[in-house]
UniProtKB/TrEMBL annotation:
<dbReference type="Pfam" id="PF00135">
    <property type="entry name" value="COesterase"/>
</dbReference>
<protein>
    <recommendedName>
        <fullName>Carboxylesterase type B domain-containing protein</fullName>
    </recommendedName>
</protein>
<keyword id="KW-0732">Signal</keyword>
<dbReference type="InterPro" id="IPR029058">
    <property type="entry name" value="AB_hydrolase_fold"/>
</dbReference>
<dbReference type="InterPro" id="IPR002018">
    <property type="entry name" value="CarbesteraseB"/>
</dbReference>
<feature type="domain" description="Carboxylesterase type B">
    <location>
        <begin position="38"/>
        <end position="141"/>
    </location>
</feature>
<feature type="signal peptide">
    <location>
        <begin position="1"/>
        <end position="17"/>
    </location>
</feature>
Length: 153
């Protein structure tokens, strides 16, 4: 992961078609195009894969480098990557308890206990493949990459 950040900061293979074009970093297995946060003056490289998908024998193993099968995927960070999140069923009750106290559970006033078996719907973008990171690089640092000392990581 540190090598990836260093590659992004050090320039690696960079390209920009025109002065207004956003930079693209070639990591060997994927091409990543940045988005520019103009108010913060930084580039954001979103959803950068740093390990092969954790499937099969890799499911509960340490991350291994992504495959470099020759086909480079273009990634501009627009595809949502969401890791599964655990939300216990009782969280639905806690907000009511905090706001209304014990009055929230007044059974004599007709309070009905919601079924604990009901779970919230799953996020359609959720996946077990969470080996992604976002790298934010100040615009000035990125544009002077490879010209001098570099920048601390």
């Amino acid at each position: 992961m540190l090598r990836l950040i260093v590659l992004l900061l050090a320039g690696g293979s960079l390209s920009a078609a025109a002065p207004t074009a956003l930079p693209v970093v070639d990591l060997g297995y994927e091409l990543h195009q940045a988005t520019l946060n103009e108010s913060g003056q930084y580039y954001n490289f979103s959803n950068v894969r740093y390990g092969a998908p954790p499937v099969g024998n890799l499911r509960f193993s340490a991350p291994v480098p992504p495959s470099t099968n020759g086909t480079k995927i273009f990634n501009d960070g627009s595809r949502a990557v969401t890791c599964f999140q655990a939300v216990p069923a009782w969280t639905a009750y806690t907000a009511d308890w905090v706001v209304n106290g014990t009055a929230a559970f007044n059974i004599s006033a007709g309070y009905q206990v919601p079924p604990l078996a009901a779970t919230p719907p799953a996020d359609p973008t959720a996946t077990e493949d969470c080996l992604f990171l976002d790298v934010m690089v100040p615009q000035a640092i990125f544009e002077t990459a490879g010209q001098g000392q570099g920048a601390p990581v």
